[in-house]
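Protocol step 4 of 6: structure prediction from sequence.
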Amino acid sequence: MQGWTLFFSVFGVAPSRRRAVKLTTTAVPALIPLALARTAAAAEPPNDETKSLPCRPTIACTADIVVPGAIEIETGALFRRLDATGRQWTFPVLAKLTVANWLQVQAGGNGYTVLRGNVPAQFLDDVQLGAKFHVLDQGPAAPSISFSALASIPTFRAQGYLRTYDTLLTAYVTKDLGPLHADLNVGENVWRVQAPLPQEWIALAISVNLPPPFGVMAESYYFTDARPVALRDGGFLFAVSHSPKPWLVFDFGGDVGMFPSTRSYSLFIGMTIVPVLLWVPHSQGE
């Protein structure tokens, strides 16, 4: 649920001198014109059959994707207390377009990032592009399964900003177990494609629906050490969600770091919305 990485996936909470993201998937731009060419009717607003599926605020993202034709946007703000003096604010955004039942393209990043402390910095973080492939629907026994691949492309040069070309590969497993909804993600960041430095990570998120329109979620996650680009990190995250409409979700919460020398705690708030359907799936249009 990275991001907000990849999170979001997401907000991702993978530690890095540049602030790694878990925005769990991203975009193949060449596919977007092909998707738009399939539009059989004028774009229209979402209806109550259109359900948003946030990849944040947890690190782990769901294996499921929204209906074909839907544009889904995730955005928010994240504060991280890094050490005794270090503080970080990021304002991530993730845009997703479902092209088919098996394919979603995405583009996003951590956006504007501000660091305060011994080494202050301000910069526009990497742009992430890639795709998410949904390969199995959930059944009575089988979970929902997806895979994603994304490329991380550096932006403008700035003091304190480490510019590298990176890749992220992620496997997603989602299963409903009675009232519980579980998302398990396993992935690998390959920092510095030109001089590969791998970082493995795993995240498990559990969510429960409260009386509508509220929900709660909890997560545990861990990132291995990949110095000097990304530090070891892990934590326990808790959040509350509010969904006044199926296609609109607000959430807020925080998490406590496993390793205080890397990060002591984080606080976040965000929104996920499906603002428009570029075309209406047959199941909704009939």
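Step 5 (inspection) to follow. The helical segments are 31-37, 282-285.
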